[in-house]
Amino acid sequence: MKAAAYLLGLLLLLSQAAGAAPITITVGDNFYSPQTVTIHPGDVVTWQYQGGTNSHPTASDDGAWTTFTINSANVSNSLTFATAGSFPYHCTFHGGPGVGMYGVITVATALGAQPAQLVAAAFSLYPNPTSGLVTLLVDHSQAREYNVVELFNSMGGLVRTFALRPEEVGQEVAISVADLPAGFYYYRLLTNGQVAGVQRLSLVR
Length: 205
What we know:
CATH topology of the largest domain: Immunoglobulin-like
Distance between the termini: 22 Å
Number of helices: 2
CATH architecture of the largest domain: Sandwich
CATH class of the largest domain: Mainly Beta
Number of strands: 16
Number of domains: 2
Strand content: over 45%
C-alpha cells in the first residue's frame, strides 16, 4: 500500500513537467550563478566551470546527491531532478548551508487531476519488481504521441534510451535490464521532447 501511494505521488508530481529542459549553473571562484533556480520535474541541471584557480566540491545540504567536484579537470556535472522539492547545496571549500558559496534548486510542480489521470493511464510496466526483464505497454489511444523511452537510475543518471516504433504502441514490448545493478529506476516516456509519463521500477536480484 505504501509503495502504491509513493508511486501515485510520483506520478502526480511529474505529470506537469513540460520536458527535460537543460539548466546551466556557472561555477566560478566563490560563486554559483544563478544562485537560485526554479525548475520542473525531469529537468536537467548542469554545473559548468567558468575558470579560475579554485576547486569546488559541490555537496547537497541534505544528501540528495553524492558530492562532486567542479574544477579545471572536471569542468561539468549534470543531474536530473525527478521529484518536486527544495535542494539546497554548497561548496565545501568556500561555503556552507546558506552561507558563502551556496545555491538552491527548487523543483516546482502544479498538481492537476486531468494530467495526472493521463499520466497514470499512459503506460504500464510489469512485473514490478523485476529481476531482469520488464514488459512495457503503452496505451493504444496515445499511439500518435509517444516516441522515446528513457531509463534513469535513482541518482537521475540516464542509463538507457530507445525509440518506440509506431507499431509497438499498444503492444507488449520486452525490455531487458538484467545487466543493471539492483535498485530503483525510473522509466520516462517523451513525446516531441515533452514528458508524457513516468513510472518507478524496482530491480531486484
